[in-house]
């Protein structure tokens, strides 16, 4: 037991030796002494490296202890310092630290001394700074006063220059001086010199008025010599006047001078407009007018408009007989006549002068703008007074729309400039327009549905124009909607157009409800002319709305409705439906078309049901013939079964009647639906209800292929394709005996194999054998039933 004890003691000594230098070197390092886990990890790593997991290697611990003690002694000699032995690196670092500390203290003392001197200097210089600031303030004030006086002197010099130029008839120089005043006025807008600016504005307005009045007087004299304004169409004279060249020169000179005066005139006009609207006179200069504000009229055109404006106000204001609310066409037509009469003069006399002066405006457009301002004021005044008179209001709207059409079309007034339509978009006027439009449309609907010829077509005697066979009421209604469209098509606001589109959809739905009510009254006799006329009306409206859905105008409205989110037009559609509209996959009329198609389907079904009810009564005697006992006959001697004659006559008469009263597309649906129903009735009532001899099968095939199918051959090339059950039944009943036996055996074997678990591999399906015989519609089980209806089997 002595050896283990010695080993343990040696291990403890070894541990102390390992930890001693670490603890001694970490007395000044708080982070290392605090991390006890690091010491333990170091000890474990060392023991693992030197000793390992072999217990026999513990005998080397003593040697390891001695080695570590020697290393510890070497480290102590290197670290521990005394007076006689100092490490060179530590000594050098200490010396450098002491020198740096001395330098820092020296710099701090110098900084304190300099700061004290600077503070004292600032205190001594403060009185001088205060005096200098007062002096600079006085200099600044004097400088501003000098600039003020210079500006005032400049204004007086410009005023004197204008006066001198006017005295010497130097109009161009006077206009340039006035332009300089206008530029100076624009520059002073940002300043606070209100009195100076007021003086400048008064001076500018004074001289501008004098120059403008002088030029206006001279310009009016020249215009009088040129017979302006042209109240009546101008008369072309073959002999020129004696002083024509002089008048043309004066005209060009005056127009050019008036154009040069345009800038100051615009400035004064804008300031007058701002003061009338309550805007402060002193405000920053605007680089450009707002987009909604039209630029001022060309100054020469303003003067040319004065006599026309006087005539307009004389005739169409006050107590004049020409000023009547019931005749807006008087002043609208008068303005259009003035525009037309002045066109030649403006294009041949005024426009070349504007072009040579470098103006970018059109003389004709400027004249139209000036006259339009008179009309806009008059229409706005009259429209507000007619809100409670439906008839006069409608008349005003019609005349405004016609005026706008002629102005844009005949006189080429640009679409980017406002006309009169924006006046109709004011809330009160637009709402009144919508209300009156709906009221009059409803009244017309009542009148058209109650008229005597409401359900007859006006083109009934013209076959080429009567494919749709639309009754007069439906055609009148769609014409009414088209007229509404033409009225609001030219409105400049998509949201207003969408309101009218919503009104149209509402009217269509109202008309559909009225048609449904009339249809219910006529449903007791679906074969009558009025019932078919209602069906034609529904089909006609549906066709027209379908065409509108592909129209460019309504597609543009569709995009506008999606972008604006108009609930009145979209009608609460879901996200998917709105997405389809945005991608142009659907149309705004889909909801109405669905309702109309449902009504059309219901009416067509009722019509065919009544037709088939009559035909079915004629089919029953035919199905009760002795098909089993009919002898075989030659084709040349065969005739139509006597019991089939009533049925054939009924089918023929009904087809002719439907062809006469239904539109082409509806008749196509009608005869195809009739053929399908008749095919089922004959198959059930005649074929499956009887057994057939060879002669009976031949007679049935003769009746169908030579008599019934040709009745429908007038409307298609292969009518038998619409009687698949009857046609294939005739084929199977008319097969020769051998083929019938083989086919029946094949079908029986196929069904037995299927019952046992499936057909043998490689065997052709029974359908291929049926297809070879021309049977494609009937199933194998139905074919077996039909084959069993044959009476001519061997041994029977």
TrEMBL record:
One GO-annotated biological process of the protein: endoplasmic reticulum to Golgi vesicle-mediated transport
Domain of life: Eukaryota
GO cellular component: Dsl1/NZR complex
One of the Pfam families matching this protein, by short name: RINT1_TIP1
Residue runs in coiled coils: none
Membrane-spanning ranges: none
Family: Belongs to the RINT1 family.
Alphabetical list of PANTHER family matching this protein: RAD50-INTERACTING PROTEIN 1, RAD50-INTERACTING PROTEIN 1 RINT-1
Protein name (database record): RAD50-interacting protein 1
Record organism: Champsocephalus esox
């Amino acid at each position: 037991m002595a050896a283990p004890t010695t080993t343990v003691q040696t291990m403890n000594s070894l541990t102390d030796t390992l930890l001693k230098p670490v603890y001694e070197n970490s007395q000044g390092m708080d982070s290392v002494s605090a991390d006890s886990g690091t010491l333990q990890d170091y000890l474990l790593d060392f023991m693992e490296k030197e000793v390992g997991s072999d217990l026999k290697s513990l005998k080397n611990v003593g040697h390891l202890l001695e080695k570590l003690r020697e290393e510890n002694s070497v480290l102590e000699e290197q670290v521990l310092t005394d007076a006689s032995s100092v490490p060179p690196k530590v000594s050098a670092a200490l010396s450098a630290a002491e020198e740096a500390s001395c330098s820092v203290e020296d710099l701090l003392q110098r900084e304190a001394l300099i700061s004290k001197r600077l503070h004292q200097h600032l205190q001594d210089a403060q009185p001088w700074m205060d005096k200098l600031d007062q002096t600079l303030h006085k200099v600044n004030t004097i400088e501003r006063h000098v600039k003020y006086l210079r500006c005032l002197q400049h204004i007086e010099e410009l005023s004197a220059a204008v006066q001198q130029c006017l005295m010497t008839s130097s109009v161009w120089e006077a206009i340039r001086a006035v332009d300089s005043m206008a530029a100076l006025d624009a520059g002073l807008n940002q300043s606070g010199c209100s009195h100076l600016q007021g003086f400048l504005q008064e001076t500018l307005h004074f001289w501008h008025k004098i120059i403008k009045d002088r030029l206006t007087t001279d310009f009016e004299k020249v215009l009088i010599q040129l017979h302006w304004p042209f109240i009546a169409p101008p008369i072309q004279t073959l002999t020129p006047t004696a002083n024509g060249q002089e008048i043309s020169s004066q005209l060009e000179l005056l127009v050019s001078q008036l154009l040069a005066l345009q800038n100051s005139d615009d400035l004064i006009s804008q300031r007058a407009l701002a003061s009338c609207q309550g805007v402060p006179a002193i405000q920053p200069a605007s680089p450009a007018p707002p987009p909604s504000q039209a630029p001022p009229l060309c100054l020469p055109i303003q003067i040319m408009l004065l006599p026309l404006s006087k005539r307009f106000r004389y005739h169409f204001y006050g107590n004049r007989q020409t000023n009547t609310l019931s005749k807006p066409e008087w002043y609208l037509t008068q303005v259009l006549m003035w525009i037309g009469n002045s066109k030649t003069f403006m294009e041949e006399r005024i426009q070349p002068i504007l072009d040579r002066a470098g103006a970018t405006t059109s003389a004709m457009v400027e004249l139209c703008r000036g006259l339009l301002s008179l009309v806009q004021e008059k229409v706005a005044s009259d429209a507000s007074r007619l809100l409670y008179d439906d008839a006069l209001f409608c008349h005003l709207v019609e005349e405004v729309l016609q005026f706008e059409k002629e102005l844009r079309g005949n006189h080429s007034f640009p679409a980017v400039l406002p006309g009169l339509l924006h006046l109709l978009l004011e809330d009160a006027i637009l709402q009144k327009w919508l209300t009156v439009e709906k009221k009059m449309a409803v009244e017309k609907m009542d009148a058209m549905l109650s008229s005597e010829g409401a359900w007859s077509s006006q083109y009934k005697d013209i076959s080429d124009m009567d494919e749709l066979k639309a009754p007069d009421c439906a055609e009148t209604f769609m014409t009414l909607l088209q007229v509404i469209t033409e009225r609001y098509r030219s409105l400049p606001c998509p949201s207003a157009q969408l309101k009218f589109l919503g009104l149209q959809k509402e009217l269509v739905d109202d008309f559909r409800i009225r048609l449904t009510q009339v249809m219910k009254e006529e449903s007791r006799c679906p074969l009558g002319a009025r019932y078919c006329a209602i069906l034609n009306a529904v089909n006609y409206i549906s066709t027209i709305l379908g065409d509108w859905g592909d129209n460019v105008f309504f597609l543009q409205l569709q995009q506008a409705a999606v972008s604006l989110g108009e609930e009145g037009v979209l009608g609460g559609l879901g996200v998917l439906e709105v997405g389809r509209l945005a991608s142009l996959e659907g149309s705004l009329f889909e909801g109405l078309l669905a309702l109309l198609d449902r009504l059309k389907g219901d009416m067509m079904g009722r019509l065919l049901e009544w037709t088939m009810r009559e035909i079915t009564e004629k089919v029953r005697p035919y199905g009760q013939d002795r098909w089993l006992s009919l002898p075989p006959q030659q084709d040349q001697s065969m005739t139509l079964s006597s019991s089939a004659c009533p049925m054939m006559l009924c089918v023929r008469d009904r087809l002719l009647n439907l062809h006469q009263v239904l539109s082409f597309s509806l008749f196509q649906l009608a005869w195809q639906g009739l053929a399908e129903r008749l095919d089922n009735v004959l198959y059930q009532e005649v074929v499956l209800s009887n057994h057939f001899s060879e002669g009976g099968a031949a007679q049935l095939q003769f009746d169908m292929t030579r008599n019934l199918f040709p009745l429908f051959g007038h409307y298609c090339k292969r009518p038998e394709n619409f009687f698949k059950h009857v046609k294939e039944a005739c084929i199977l009943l008319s097969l020769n005996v051998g083929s019938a036996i083989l086919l029946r055996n094949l079908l029986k074997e196929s069904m037995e194999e299927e019952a046992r678990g499936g057909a043998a591999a490689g065997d052709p399906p029974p359908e291929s054998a049926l297809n070879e015989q021309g049977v494609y519609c009937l199933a194998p089980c139905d074919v077996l039933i039909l084959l069993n209806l044959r009476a001519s089997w061997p041994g029977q």
